[in-house]
Specification:
Keywords: ATP-binding, Kinase, Membrane, Nucleotide-binding, Transferase, Transmembrane, Transmembrane helix, Two-component regulatory system. This is histidine kinase. It catalyses: ATP + protein L-histidine = ADP + protein N-phospho-L-histidine. It is an enzyme of class 2 (transferase). There is one protein chain. The protein has 22 helices and 14 strands. The longest helix has 64 residues, at 416-479. Helix 4 (105-129) packs antiparallel against helix 5, helix 5 (139-162) runs antiparallel to helix 6 (167-179) and helix 11 runs antiparallel to helix 12. It has helices at 8-33, 38-61, 70-98, 105-129, 139-162, 167-179, 181-189, 202-231, 236-255, 258-272, 279-290, 299-310, 348-355, 362-367, 379-382, 416-479, 483-508, 522-532, 555-571, 603-610, 626-636, 680-689; strands at residues 316-321, 327-333, 360-361, 387-395, 398-406, 518-521, 540-543, 550-553, 579-586, 589-596, 640-646, 650-658, 661-664, 669-672. The protein is of the alpha+beta class and 694 residues long. The N and C termini lie far apart (102 Å).
């Protein structure tokens, strides 16, 4: 009393302890000496309950930074509690003075149950809304007070149901009160800690209100069940069970009803808070909804539910602008779709939304069209019978979509706060909708690009085959009697047939991009390529060592890649120029240098256009994908293509490929993927010129 009474909550706690001591003493003296009477003990119990309620209210009042609406909540809860105490105390005092029973014992029990329930609600409210760091200073006090009220609640509820107080509850009541004394002592020792910082939230108020409503409802249900049993005669017990079961089912229906929950939340927002919305909660809820990357439910449906939930609705529809500028219906939630759903992009409503960011109340529009300058609403919107709000959705400063919200589940009075929040959320969700649409368009464009790319590669190969066959046709009239020409024509035609067959197989099985890889003698292939392209001028020359160099690749694809590079070198070189093919090997790799003395290329052309698909220097006769296709395949098998060139000085293509090792055995040769060791001549060439020297 001399050291720990600095704060109001401490002094109120002392008063409550004194009242509890007097109440407990009256029970002891009544048990020993038969005094005082029941009314005196009942009045002291009411004072004891009032003392503990005052402690809880003092905790609310002791908040250092009270939140908006906390004073109002404290006043309402305090008014309800002390109203019950005042009524019960007044009736009991009059009964004592007049010596005449004014109320029955059951009404006194109902009053005690109500007091206990209000006390439990106050404890729950304090604990739910206190800061996590400050809960340690009030934990023991809240647990002690909650124990008192909860025990009384169960004891008096049991007495109401069975018509008398249970001897077990009554005998243990003193021991239960004794158990909380150490908790109060710990609270007093922690009194120098910070008081609770009370933070009121709409969800907490909603839960407390629902709990109070459920408690009061159950009290009336219990009373109704009792009178049904009394008046029911032989069927009293059965009728009582039927009545209680129906009451519980009806309570479950109320608590799960969206309309009831919406009306209760609106009542709480209007009477306990300065703002209608808990903006932090609304923003977190919207973030959780939009963070879902799956398509269940689809994004347009989620956006409708978010906007509808802001005004206590559960239905709506969404239109989004298409490529033609019209608005197409994307989704409708809990609304019957009309036959025609598209909205003209040049309609009067679209022009109205393009000039001003207004939210149109269709009920207000139907009652007073002049308020909206006799605006014409399209039929696809008016055909929705339960339509309520029309919300424009902007992407930047342009109208991107229109959202229709269905009628609310409860009567909602809209003001500037509703409209501001709806407009902000509409803009945020519209950005996500536009991003999703852009991703879909990009995906379609990539699919078309893949098809176009495959078609271009196919056309490129067909163009090469057509050039070969056309050359045969032009020379057939002059060399039809030449046996060598006939042999060459048969060979070329057979090669064309094989190429077209491979092309058809590749189209049927596009997954086999690497082909059937096998060990190949690159030196032998270079020699065959030089002989194959010797008919064109200048003839390619094979220089350097003639040792076998093994690589792993698909023969047809590697032949096509190297042949394309050799043919390009011939096309860029005059007939009197030179085209040379040189192989140089090192540990694990081999480099093929395809060098010409042709026109050459600029450094900018090599960097920006040479390996870029669909860029060609051959005009309409080229597809611009040969070099790109060649480098992509070489990279697929672990190599690379590099180019050095100067205008007027020629070019050198360096084709780097990984080699495989030949392991000799007694009866056969085995080829492995281990790096090949260079020969003395190859090592000397590598040291003299390096891999990329020309």
């Amino acid at each position: 009393m001399t050291r720990y009474l600095r704060r109001t909550s401490d002094r109120v706690l002392l008063v409550s302890a004194i009242l509890s001591f007097l109440w407990a003493g009256s029970l002891v003296t009544q048990q020993v000496w038969g005094e005082p009477t029941f009314i005196i003990r009942y009045l002291l119990e009411l004072l004891r309950d009032a003392g503990w309620v005052m402690v809880l209210l003092a905790l609310l009042r002791a908040a250092e930074q009270p939140r908006m609406g906390s004073d109002r909540t404290r006043r309402v809860l305090g008014f309800l509690t002390f109203s019950v105490i005042f009524v019960l105390f007044t009736l009991a005092a009059l009964e004592y003075l007049l010596n005449f029973p004014l109320v029955s014992g059951k009404l006194k029990i109902v009053g005690q149950i109500a007091l206990s329930l209000l006390g439990i609600c106050l404890v729950e409210q304090i604990w739910r809304n206190s800061v996590q760091s400050s809960r340690s200073s009030i934990r023991y006090l809240c647990i002690g007070i909650l124990t008192l009220f909860a025990y009384d609640f169960f004891m008096y509820t049991d007495a109401l149901l069975f018509g008398q107080i249970s001897s077990g509850f009554w005998d243990a009541r003193g021991a239960v009160n004794t158990l909380i004394v150490p908790l109060l002592g710990v609270t007093m020792m922690n009194t120098r800690k910070q008081p609770v910082e009370f933070q009121l939230s709409r969800n907490a108020m909603f839960h407390v209100s629902a709990l109070v409503f459920a408690g009061i409802y159950l009290l009336f249900a219990a009373a109704g069940g009792y009178y049904v049993r009394v008046l029911g005669g032989d069927w009293g017990d059965a009728l009582q069970m039927l009545f209680i079961t129906g009451a519980l089912a009806f309570l479950a229906l109320l608590l799960t009803s969206r309309r009831f929950r919406a009306r209760l939340m609106i009542f709480i927002s209007q009477n306990f808070f300065d703002y209608k919305y808990d903006y932090r909660e609304e923003w977190l809820k919207m973030t959780r909804e939009l963070a879902n990357l799956s398509d269940e439910p689809p994004l347009p449906e989620r956006i409708i539910r978010i906007l509808a939930g802001l005004v206590e609705s559960s239905s709506g529809a969404l239109w989004v602008r298409d490529e033609d500028g019209n608005f197409m219906l994307q989704s409708a939630v809990n609304l019957n779709q009309p036959r025609f759903t598209s909205i003209d992009g040049d309609c009067e409503l679209a022009q109205f939304f393009s000039s001003r960011e207004w939210i149109i109340d269709l009920e207000e529009y139907r009652n007073d069209p002049v308020r909206y300058n006799l605006l014409e609403i399209p039929d696809p919107i008016l055909k929705f019978e339960r339509g309520w709000l029309l919300i424009p959705m902007y992407l930047g400063n342009e109208l991107y979509g229109i959202t229709l919200i269905g009628r609310a589940n409860a009567r909602v009075e809209l003001n500037w706060e509703n409209f501001d929040l709806v407009r902000v959320v509409a803009r945020q969700t519209c950005n996500l909708l536009a991003q999703a649409d852009a991703q879909n368009r990009l995906s379609r464009a990539m699919q078309f690009e893949a098809v176009s790319k495959a078609s271009a590669f196919m056309v490129h190969d067909l163009k090469t085959l057509i050039a070969q066959l056309s050359l045969l046709v032009r020379n057939a009239a002059h060399h039809r009697n030449n046996p060598a020409f006939i042999d060459d024509m048969i060979s070329t035609t057979d090669h064309a047939v094989q190429k077209m067959s491979n092309l058809v197989d590749h189209i049927r099985k596009p997954m086999s991009d690497h082909g059937d890889q096998e060990p190949l003698d690159l030196q032998k292939m270079i020699t065959e390529l030089a002989a194959h392209y010797a008919r064109n001028q200048p003839r390619p020359k094979v220089l350097g060592p003639q040792d076998a160099v093994m690589v792993r690749a698909d023969r047809d694809q590697l032949w096509s890649v190297l042949g394309h590079l050799i043919q390009n070198a011939q096309d860029a070189t005059p007939p009197d120029g030179e085209v040379s093919l040189t192989l140089k090997a090192s540990t694990g790799h081999v480099v093929l240098f395809i060098q010409d003395s042709g026109t050459g290329m600029s450094e900018e052309f090599i960097r920006m256009q040479l390996f870029k698909p669909f860029e060609s220097t051959k005009g309409l006769t080229g597809m611009g994908i040969g070099a790109y296709q060649a480098r992509e395949y070489v990279r697929q098998i672990g190599g690379n293509i590099d180019v050095t060139s100067e205008p007027g000085m020629g070019s050198c293509f360096s084709v780097l490929l990984p080699t495989v090792k030949i392991a000799a055995r007694s009866d056969r040769q085995q080829i492995t993927d281990e790096p090949v060791e260079p020969t003395t001549a190859q090592a000397g060439a590598g040291r003299a010129g390096g891999l990329h020297s020309s």
